[in-house]
């Protein structure tokens, strides 16, 4: 019996050495979770059970459990590397074969799909054609690397102040080339359907107490007739307190809406030719089907210098992908050379009721099992799921000093069990040698 007891001890010590050695070997593996050998004693039993003074029969390896405690976060130079700070696993797919991992080595393949270093596709929420996240539909995350199509301007919002102390210009009529015929001016870039930039310039001419005329030219031309330099004109009236009087807006060229905004309709985007002087004509883009809505409702007339406090318009030229950013909730933003950004998708995480029940399959990955239960999928920072850190990786949670001590203990256990077998052998040899 002692031979079997000692042999079981040798086997268990070997298993302990194997587990410890595997931990040490993966001390530098990102996302690796260390294992622990768990042992149980053995007792021989009969049909009616064992007695209270029965002798043990050795030891067995009861389980090899994994410790899913957090590893250190190590920052890298790759913007698509991801680390989970807290609970959860990345969900990856290899042609439909789903696995879970904490190793965040991610990049893009030739088709723009986010993949790990084994080519498995990262799972998350995709976006529709308008850039809206399709929450609830988990699929492969794909980065759109193509150029961003231009967008024609449809909205122009401005907040400015006209100086109430200005005098009515003595020189008339208005001439955009003569600054003495107007009080103030400002220019804003707007875009046509092909992404060409055009300068919309507004010239403000004081015509009386609280009354102004706003003259509008695009590229120095009439918005509707490129061969003409006659501006679009709109009368602006301000209240005694300096606020824009929406009821006093009148224009023969712009449409005054009921809400106090202005519509510039039938704009003909134009461009000059190479002749001297240049001849202007339509540049071949589409006349906008939607008018440019100009919102001046927050304009004021106070006794301070002319200033444009804010201006925004929704058009832009074409743009090339210049970079990617991923926030702590897993939302992926693409930045373009035209200054725009667009959501490309959102990374999801999975958690399990019993993480110890997950089955390791190598490549720092696990798969679902009956013991683990079904995955609960959600976005980072929702529920009990952790947050994401972009440009970083989670280090192995192996503590080398502990593992080296475990090696010493396992070695001594092995030697002690070998000594048990050696002693039993000596006793047996003594019996054999009896005469």
TrEMBL record:
The keyword Cell inner membrane does not apply. Keywords: Bacterial flagellum, Cell projection, Cilium, Flagellum. Residues 163-182 are annotated as: Disordered. Residues 4-33 form the Flagellar basal body rod protein N-terminal domain. GO terms for cellular component: bacterial-type flagellum basal body; bacterial-type flagellum hook; cytosol. SUPFAM superfamilies: Flagellar hook protein flgE. Residues 389-434 form the Flagellar basal-body/hook protein C-terminal domain. InterPro entries: Falgellar_hook_FlgE_sf (IPR037058), Flag_bb_rod_N (IPR001444), Flagellar_FlgE/F/G (IPR020013), Flg_bb/hook_C_dom (IPR010930), FlgE/F/G-like (IPR037925), FlgE_D2 (IPR011491), LlgE_F_G-like_D1 (IPR053967). Residues 83-145 form the Flagellar hook protein FlgE/F/G-like D1 domain. Residues 163-174 have a biased composition (Polar residues). One of its GO terms (biological process) is bacterial-type flagellum-dependent swarming motility. Residues 161-316 form the Flagellar hook protein FlgE D2 domain. Pfam families: Flg_bb_rod (PF00460), Flg_bbr_C (PF06429), FlgE_D2 (PF07559), LlgE_F_G_D1 (PF22692). It is found in: Bacterial flagellum basal body. NCBIfam families: FlgEFG_subfam (TIGR03506), PRK05682.1-1 (NF004238). Belongs to the flagella basal body rod proteins family. A flexible structure which links the flagellar filament to the drive apparatus in the basal body. This is Flagellar hook protein FlgE. It comes from Pseudomonas taeanensis MS-3.
